[in-house]
Amino acid sequence: MESARRLAKLCKDFRAADVVLLDLTELTPIFDYFVIATGSNRRQMISLAEEADKVMKEQRSGRLGVEGHDANQWVLHDYGDVVLHVFMPESRELYDLEGLWADAKRIDGDDTPVPSSEPDAESDSFPNSDAGPDQDAEEGTP
């Protein structure tokens, strides 16, 4: 669950839209969670997916599979128990994963804080303060 929450927070940090975390533990033995987000452009989608790889590697959860890096509409990274889906808006609507997995429990990422991997971390940002796009804003520079 912690890995899924970290990925959901990362999506929000990268300004992805409509971030959804689905708990699939009661529905399938193949994976436990989907993190679904909408990107505004291809560059954002790829940057987010690449940063997700770094974060999951820090968690000792390497990527098992990847799809969509050559396409323009959907990037999927499979980390075993968590699968990250980053869509362009049209593809998200077309594939409608939330509808396909309508019986899954939606988890609100805002109600439970994501633990930091650094015990003395002072910010809400990801463990690497230089990893997210909000670094300058958090340091108080424009």
UniProtKB/TrEMBL annotation:
GO molecular function, one term: ribosomal large subunit binding
GO biological process, one term: negative regulation of ribosome biogenesis
Biased composition (Acidic residues): 133-142
Subcellular location: Cytoplasm
GO cellular component, one term: cytoplasm
Keyword match Cytoplasm: yes
Primary location class: cytoplasm
Keywords: Cytoplasm, Repressor, Translation regulation
Renumbered residue ranges of the record's region Disordered: 106-142
Coiled coil: none
Subunit: Interacts with ribosomal protein uL14 (rplN).
Function: Functions as a ribosomal silencing factor. Interacts with ribosomal protein uL14 (rplN), blocking formation of intersubunit bridge B8. Prevents association of the 30S and 50S ribosomal subunits and the formation of functional ribosomes, thus repressing translation.
NCBIfam families named among the record's database cross-references: rsfS_iojap_ybeB
Recorded family membership: Belongs to the Iojap/RsfS family.
Protein name: Ribosomal silencing factor RsfS
Organism of this sequence: Stratiformator vulcanicus
